[in-house]
Amino acid sequence: MLTRYFTDFLAAYQPYKEGRWCYEDGCIYRGLQLLADATGEAHWRETMKRMVDAQIGEGPSLAGYNPSEYNIDNILSGRALLDLAETTGDPVYMQCAALEIRQLDTHPRTRSGVYWHKLRYPWQVWLDGLYMGPPFQIGYGLATGKESYVTDSLTQLDTALKMLFFEKTGLYAHAIDEAKMQPWCDPQTGMSHAHWSRSLGWLVMALVDVAELVGPERFATLRERTVKLLADVASYRRPEGLWLQVLDEPELEGNFLETSASAMFVYGLLKGAELGLYDGDVSTLFDDLTAYAMREVDGKLSMVEMCWVAGLGWFEGRFRDGTGPYYVSERRVADDAKGVGPLMMAAAAETARKARG
């Protein structure tokens, strides 16, 4: 069922931002990479290659990519470049990856040393960015033998987790404004107010991917917090097997089971179990996810009930204040790359789990 869904989705897929290099396409690239690795079926990676190649221009260059925006989101798709460099041997992919590294080499940082989320979001660290940047930077450092990139990313992750830890809940805030200037933040802590599930989903995926990249010895400083976070996330799983849009507020009016974050959590828990970071039961995670998220709509299978976008601050004439009521007010969509990509990742992790027996 899902193989056909992914095939049909890819056949109809249009680049997310009219062909510009972006993280949404990067979610699909990552899903395709993991499906290829888990199944051994080359067509998944061949599809990824065709999509990536369409975004590479002369120079080489990446379509619509402007490093001076200092947008950490734009780094995620670089993981596909590293994968294709390794699997094809074509030097153009590492040349393109070097364009992103040049951005990171001069990317502005907080006083504590963590990359700003974007140039237009000064002094801010968002959980999203911890998935967008560090796994690529670590992968690049490992591929090129430049250990300083690995060390820098591990240090940034460690610092960011300390900055974003929300003592009252034991979870992590969506974002922090180190300058404590943004109207969405707590004026005392600088942190945002509610636990948006997809932001935590990005964090969970970042941590398990980094754990796999660097190995247990180098991951030691992050291990305890990762183990706790995975166990905590699992404890918020609802009876239907998924997670709420605002993770820890089941009584919040309008709160709903959100499928993109749920796919991220399923991937993270499955990968965490594989890496010895989570010891809970994972046997029903994937089946529960697909039973709820996959529906027939207008005669075709769709992944439904996902938040289209959420953030903090002004966006398209609306102020996003980071409260629970704000998050549940955001529009719900179907078949968005931010959900389908993690669903591919979860499917790959489930395939690997079953192969291990």
Distance between the termini: 22 Å
In terms of DSSP E residues, the strand content is 5-15%
Q: How many helix segments?
A: 14
Global shape: globular
Q: Determine Rg (CA atoms, Å).
A: 19 Å
Strand order of the largest sheet: 1-2
The chain-level mean pLDDT equals: 97
The computed structural class is: mainly alpha
CATH architectural label: Alpha/alpha barrel
Order of helices and strands: HHHEEHHEHHHEEEHHHHEEEEEHEH
* Total number of domains: 1
Instruction: Name the CATH class.
Output: Mainly Alpha
CATH topology: Glycosyltransferase
Residue windows where pLDDT falls under 50 for at least 5 positions: none
Q: Determine the oligomeric state from the structure.
A: single chain
Give an account of the 3D structure.
It is a single chain. With 357 residues, this protein is mostly helical. It has a single domain, classed as Glycosyltransferase (Alpha/alpha barrel). The chain contains 14 helices and 12 strands. The strands form 6 sheets. A two-stranded antiparallel sheet has the order 1-2. The chain is globular, with a radius of gyration of 19 Å. 49% of the residues are buried.
